[in-house]
Amino acid sequence: MPDTAISEKIAARKRLRMWTILLTSGLAFLAPSAIAPGLPALQADFAHLENPELLSRMVLTMPMLFIALSGPFVGYAVDRFGRRNVLIISSLMYGASGVSVLILESLTAILISRAILGVFLAGIMTSVTALIGDYYAGDERNRVAGLQGAFMSFGTLIFVVIAGLLAEIHWRVGFSLFAVAFLLIPLMLISLYEPVSNEAAGKPPEPLPTMQQWRAIAFFCGLTFLGMVILFMIPSQTQFFLIEIGVSDPTRAGLAIGMFNLSAGLTSLAYRRIRAHLSSEAIFALIFGFAGLGYVLTSQATSFTETMIAMAVGGLSVGAFLPNTNMAIISRASMRVRGRALGALTTLFFLGQFASPFYSVPLATRISVGGAFEFSGYALFALAAGFAVYTLARWARGKTV
Is the pLDDT of residue 32 over 80? Predict the structure, then answer.
């Protein structure tokens, strides 16, 4: 923890602190978006290896596996050693492991670097979200959570479009985008401070979550895993769907994925207003409903324009997904265990992304990429119906929707 004088000086930089948190949150989906448009070219370069289809997608999803494996330990480190320290170190190592692919030759070395990147991405996401929970409360916390989701979506949009252009040069060039992490470290040093717990401030400690709250945390973590298994088909399968309908340009693949994230970002900006009127369960019903519609529309698309329209519809869902799950966890976890609770959420969030190709690739191989989107769309409709029934039942009992 920094000394009091430094803490007071840094604490005064409120606007810069918020910008630092939001810009750092934008790194979350750089891991997949920087390379997604170049996946077909990467697969072609390593076509001589066994199972190149699966291995190429593992380059995309390897970070997610190691986020999942390291998430609980990162959560403990965030609670034990401080959010600020973990964030700064994680950002430095994230950038270094990301740009290393520019010079690595073997696919094995690339996969190892992606695994290391995943560990430190877990540190970034857990610590920055914990800081939102510590720095802000109430409606302001909902506002910042919505802005965080927007920056993640708009950051992904910017990165994936740039990555699509860079993929025209070579699939490796997109990895240069990870150098952005280095630019954020000075901002962290001058604007972030370590939050002081009630115990350190001489106040009574915050109570630990009740068993009912722990069950709710576990439920939302599980829901996050299931949601990401299906929703991560957008960055991992869209470019292959476009090839299936005769659109092979990686720039257009980047634009299609970018449209999904643009739509998501707009929903994230509106999250604060949506949450003021609807429960988290009602919001999940809308999330899965729009996602299902977007997936079914994607499966029926026969042109790039139709795909872009489907992406715009489906993206309306994801923009509220992460803010809604984050706030569901933060509202139930005191500062004493917030890092560990968010570490568990981070684990399940990215484990779902890692597991996604193991769900979508066999399905696409069996029926087609378009068929995989259609099947998944109906599964999302089923989730939406479940949350809608639950919400209506609460409303019938006189509880706030």
Answer: no
What pLDDT shows up at residue 2?
A: 46
This prediction has a pTM of 0.74
pLDDT at 363 over 50: yes
Amino acid letter at 88?
I
- What CA–CA distance (Å, rounded) separates 224 from 338? 17
Q: Is residue 401 part of a domain?
A: no
Query: CA-to-CA distance for 189 and 195, rounded, in angstroms?
Result: 14
| Tokens found for residue 43 | 């697969």
Find the mean pLDDT for residues 117-136.
88
For the chain, first and last CA: distance in Å?
A: 41
The neighbour count for residue 119, using CB atoms within 10 Å, is 20
User: Is residue 290 domain-resident?
Assistant: yes
Which of 289, 281, 275 has the alpha carbon at shortest distance from 391? 281
* DSSP characters over 99-121: HGGGT--SHHHHHHHHHHHHHHH
Q: Which two tokens stand for residue 249?
A: 């340009």
Distance (Å) of CA 273 to CA 19, 270, 356, 396, 399: 21, 6, 31, 23, 19
User: Is 199 within the bounds of a domain?
Assistant: no
pLDDT class of 399 with cuts at 50, 70, 90:
low
CA 359 to CA 229: how far, in whole Å? Answer: 7
Q: How far is CA 100 from CA 61, 97, 111, 175, in A?
A: 17, 5, 11, 8
Query: Is residue 301 classed as helix, strand or coil in its secondary structure?
Result: coil
Would residue 270 count as lying in a domain? yes
If one counts the domains in the chain, the total is 1
Domain that holds residue 309: 4-194+206-396
Average pLDDT over residues 329-341: 74
Sequential DSSP letters for 48-80: TSSSHHHHHHHHHHHHHHHHHHHHHHHHHHHHH
Which of 2-11, 38-47, 268-277, 317-326 shows the lowest per-residue confidence on average (mean pLDDT)?
2-11
Residue 108: count other Cβ atoms within 10 Å of its Cβ: 11
| Whether 37 contacts 167, CB under 8 Å | yes
3-class DSSP assignment, residue 333: coil
pLDDT of residue 95: 93
The residue count of the chain comes to 401
Cβ neighbours of residue 103 closer than 8 Å, sequence gap 6 or more: none
* CATH number of the domain enclosing 144: 1.20.1250.20
Inter-residue contact 174 to 37 (CB < 8 Å): yes
